[in-house]
User: Fold this.
Amino acid sequence: MSAQADRLARKALELLKRFGQGATLTRRTTGAYDPALSTAPATVTTHAVQVLVQADNGYQELVPAGTVKVGRRKLLVAAAGLPVTPGPGDEVGPLEGCTWRVLRTDPPVQLQGTPVLYVLRVAA
Assistant:
């Protein structure tokens, strides 16, 4: 990572700490099926994140009647210090009294190939 990308990532994290809020990113990973237990063991990992919550305009999420689906948000997540890349199926919360499930991720805000902010589309 270049010095400029490092500075930008630190600045983004500082701004999200100042204007955003702290939350937890939770990832559940299912392992191989174990016939002896008749289940597949699940591993849960959590990571502290700084998040800025924005309203999701839902322009691509219209239901047949033409109304926008509710309970959607867009989250800006600081990439600095986050050892994983958020993806669909992860959960972020508590935010606004809910735990939000990641539906999709937009391309991250980057500088020279280094992620600075992750943009997540989530639903309650």
Helices lie at 3-19.
